[in-house]
Amino acid sequence: MNAKALKTLEFDKILVMLEKHAGSPLGKKRCRDLLPSSDLGDIRALQAQTTDAVSRHLKKGAPSFGSARDVRASLKCLEVGSTLSISELLNIASLLENTARAKSYGRHDNNEDSGDSLDVFFNALEPLTPLSSEIRRCILSEDEISDDASPALRQIRRQIAANGDRIHSQLNSMINGSLRSALQDAVITMRDGRYCIPVKAEYRGSVPGMVHDQSATGATVFIEPMAIVKLNNEIRELEIKEQKEIEKILAALSEEAGQHIEEILCDLENMVELDFIFARASLSLEMKGSEPIFNTEGRVQLRKARHPLLEKHRVVPIDIRLGQTFDLLIITGPNTGGKTVSLKTLGLLTIMGESGLHIPALDRSELAVFEEVYADIGDEQSIEQSLSTFSAHMTNIVSFLEKANEKSLVLFDELGAGTDPTEGAALAIAILSFLHRKHVRTMATTHYSELKVFALSTDGVENASCEFDIQTLRPTYRLLIGVPGKSNAFAISGKLGLPSYIIEEAQAQISEQDESFEDVLTSLEQNRIAMENDQRAIAYRMEQLERKEKDLLNREKTLEKQKDQIIRKANDQAHTILQEAKDYADQTMKDFRKFGKNSINSGDMERRRNELREKMNKTQKSNAIRPAERSTKELKPSDLQIGDGVKVLSLNLKGTVSTRPDSKGYLFVRCGIIRSKVHISDLELLNEPDVTLSGKAAHVSTGKVRMSKAMSVSSEIKLIGKTVDEAVAELDKYLDDAYIAHLASVRVVHGKGTGALRKGIHQYLRTQSHIKEFHLAEYGEGDAGVTIVTFKK
């Protein structure tokens, strides 16, 4: 990519924005050196890295690469066996620690299915934790080595501290003793690394020792008393030993680091690359950018693109198309309308995309891979080179025409300006025709009407305009492709106060053909505005309809859900009611058999019937079942005849009248095999002629029940392996069903075993009044393991 285009399109300002997001010095340099690529594979790889970094940034936040300092010079020293300084070792430790944090950041969560394009960088990182931990253990800061760095260093520092304490003790005794009057101040000070005391100049002869310094006025001399000279010498010797021991420690650490030169260099390179990638991701988030789709067919389609150097809340997004049905786009319109911004937006976003940066546009925006971008934008006149505006532009154009091909993007701003309008327009048409024949993707701005006609009459060339609001004298900055623009010079001048007679005289200077063409443009603009208003109204109505349709669908789903819940609840309640009714019926049958047919206690049976009625009423209320509607006509004793079909309202059962009502209104009603005493007010007369007490109809009705029951009840029950209680409970239910089915006899298989189960079953059978007799089966029919039970008829 030529440097002139990068400067003209202000790509350097984008790099300055990018550099601010990098954390390390090498990462910032990597940002400053960024250049676009023309290789489709490289571009897609860079874009994938930026996209994956944005995804990680949104999930986990941005990692820090600020400690990735340049340690390449230190690694060179290690290669030749040199000892590194404290600061150099600390820089390596910082790099390795930051590498460990980046390595941890790069690990995927357990719920993430696959990796991304950044895994290769994160997986290549080697934190070398033992090395960084050893450096941190030995070096506390750039000015301090830890006492624990080595046993010898700890011992030396202990000796230094002990000698220091002895010196302080002796000097304190001197200060507080005989030398008190000779001292300028009662303090202990250091001069050239040796302990001294400040002595008045007139007493210097009274204090034997070595003079190391004196004050600026000469009134004070700093003397090292002879009594501590030896101790000071010892401290000095220990300090020399300490320094040598520190050098040994640094040499050992350097030797250990020298064993991992390649790993440290690899960590540095990968950390710098990750810093660069995440800087691109941060810039994308700042600009609200997206990954463009690249192609090699020269096709460009930018959706709601924004110039990245303009303020986000003020810039108007534009749509740009090029290379599909046309490869030459001519933009016309008034000055300050946004024509140049449209040119720069296309050129700059193309360069950004080819550099691996996201572009400030909507998703699914397309860019073509161009090997070169040529831009002639702005006034480039040069006094030093004796170039006018026209000459400067023409110099650029000549170089473009020599180099441009079908893999190039050419941008012209005010093509043909700066000279005679007629000749300039002719030159512009010729230049654009030449590029059009070479299939070069070109975008140009102009004020020449001849170029508008050229676009209208040439295939593969399209007009475009930047919208301008005449009423407010302000541009809207919208790019309208397919609509030629007007300069609106007369309208703008009139709004700004130019006298109307001057404007009329100017209009008279325009030829009839030009005036007609401008009128056509005005009519097209008015029609376009009207169509856009209609489209907005239609879009608003469609949005309302879609919203209402969505609300109706949601309401329908809610109603269906409620309906399903109601049906499910009703089914559950019905199942519960049926189960309870079955349990009540089973219990009633057991009671009948318990009391016996000839020894029924009517009081007990009435009590049980009332308990059953109360239970049914409670169940009915709890499940919100509407009670049976009573007949509007109250029954009289004369209305009932024996054999009439009635319904017992309290039990919700149908039956037949067995007796006539007595003086209190009570009568017996047979409901199946149950004969109940009820009051006439609890009855409802049914119009069912087939329900009768005697005759053929009764036999048909009960016969249906018996046939149905007989088809489902087996003539044999197996109780082998059950306890006595379990067997009796199951046998009781089975005998009820068999008796109702009118089976003559059944086989009870209990097995031989110890005989306990057979004995328990026989004891139970003796208590059942509806059983005629029972006996063990004959030889060959089960013998002592089977009991034959015969029912009463």
Oligomer: single chain
Number of helices: 22
SS-based class: alpha/beta
Q: Strands of the largest sheet, in order across it?
A: 12-13-14-10-15-16
Q: What is the end-to-end distance?
A: 112 Å
> Helical proportion?
40-55%
pLDDT < 50 stretches: 381-386, 624-629, 689-711
Average the pLDDT over all residues and give the rounded result.
82
Count of β-strands? 25
Largest sheet: 6 strands, mixed
Radius of gyration: 53 Å
Q: How much β-strand is present in the residues? A: 15-25%
Q: In one word, what is the shape?
A: flat
Describe this structure in words.
The structure is a single chain. The protein starts with a helix and ends with a strand. The chain has a 6-stranded mixed sheet with strand order 12-13-14-10-15-16, sandwiched between helices. Strands 20-19-18-17-21 form a 5-stranded antiparallel sheet, with no helix packed on it. It is flat, with a radius of gyration of 53 Å. With 793 residues, the chain is of the alpha/beta class.
List key phrases describing it.
single chain, 793 residues, alpha/beta, six-stranded mixed β-sheet, five-stranded antiparallel β-sheet
Blueprint of the fold:
Blueprint: H1 3-8, H2 11-19, H3 25-32, H4 40-60, H5 72-79, H6 86-106, H7 119-123, H8 129-138, E1 139-141, E2 144-145, H9 151-175, E3 189-191, E4 194-200, E5 209-214, E6 220-225, H10 229-258, H11 261-287, E7 293-295, E8 300-305, E9 318-322, E10 328-332, H12 339-354, E11 366-368, E12 372-376, H13 389-403, E13 408-412, H14 421-437, E14 441-445, H15 449-457, E15 461-469, E16 474-481, H16 489-495, H17 500-508, H18 512-595, H19 602-622, E17 645-648, E18 653-657, E19 666-671, E20 674-679, E21 683-685, H20 696-712, E22 716-718, H21 724-740, E23 745-749, H22 756-766, E24 771-776, E25 786-791
Parallel strand pairs: 7-11, 10-14, 10-15, 12-13, 13-14, 22-23
Antiparallel strand pairs: 1-2, 3-4, 4-6, 5-6, 8-9, 15-16, 17-18, 17-21, 18-19, 19-20, 23-25, 24-25
